Amino acid sequence: MSSDQVEETKQMVKMLPILAVTFIPNTMYAQMLTLFIKQGMTLDRSMGPHFDIPPASLTAFVTIFMLISLVIYGQFFVPAIRRYTKNPRGITLLQRMGVGLVLHIIIMVTACLAERRRLSVARVNGIYGKLQTVPLTIFILLPQFILMGVANTFAEVAKIKFFYDQAPEGMKSLGTSYRTSSLGIGNFLSSFILKTVS
């Protein structure tokens, strides 16, 4: 191995702690695609007399609000904060990732409050069966989907850019694969949590 290859490998190894930190938000993202949808299946999904909204369609709000917040971030936040930080990106990629992590904590608190409300309404109405509908609108779950879109604007975009930027020139694809690996491990962790809790 040449000294350049050793240095490049060291650079990739230095990113492993950041990679490990990204497992948790990716686990939360996987929860959104499984547990939050399961919650929605138990709620009142009617939108008028003849249409029931599919619970999985709420994930569209993640994409919609990610796109909206990306525009707001790029057009308003970055220029405003750049004046103070003198950083062309506004804030560093690690700071951006940190904001995303804080938003993920807020998402889980929001999801917890929604679940407590759902269980409370179910208990009051004597609903204990899996196939019974809790008389509570599915849109009570909307805030956690919206916040996930905003959090992705910070965390996911920062992860992709960070792993690509920090990887040595000859290992850019490996740097990008760190993000995908993080997503995969997050899904495995989510499955483990669901299996343990169920």
Description:
The protein is mainly alpha-helical and 198 residues long. It contains seven helices and two strands; from the N terminus they run H-H-H-E-H-H-E-H-H. It has helices at residues 3-14, 16-21, 23-41, 60-85, 93-124, 142-166, 172-197, and strands at residues 43-44, 134-137. Helix 4 crosses helix 6 (142-166). The longest helix is centred in the middle third of the chain and has 32 residues, at 93-124.
SS-derived structural category: mainly alpha
Shape: elongated
Range of helix content: over 70%
Q: Name the poorly predicted regions.
A: none
> What profile does the largest beta sheet have?
2 strands, parallel
The strand line-up of the biggest sheet is 1-2
Task: Give Rg in angstroms.
Answer: 20 Å
How much is the average pLDDT?
A: 89
Question: How much strand?
Answer: under 5%
Distance between the termini: 49 Å
In total, the number of strands is 2
Secondary-structure element order, N to C? HHHEHHEHH
Helical segment count: 7
Briefly characterize the structure.
With 198 residues, the protein is mostly helical.
From the structure above, extract its key features.
198 residues, mainly alpha, two-stranded parallel sheet, elongated
What topology does this entry show?
Elements: H1 3-14, H2 16-21, H3 23-41, E1 43-44, H4 60-85, H5 93-124, E2 134-137, H6 142-166, H7 172-197
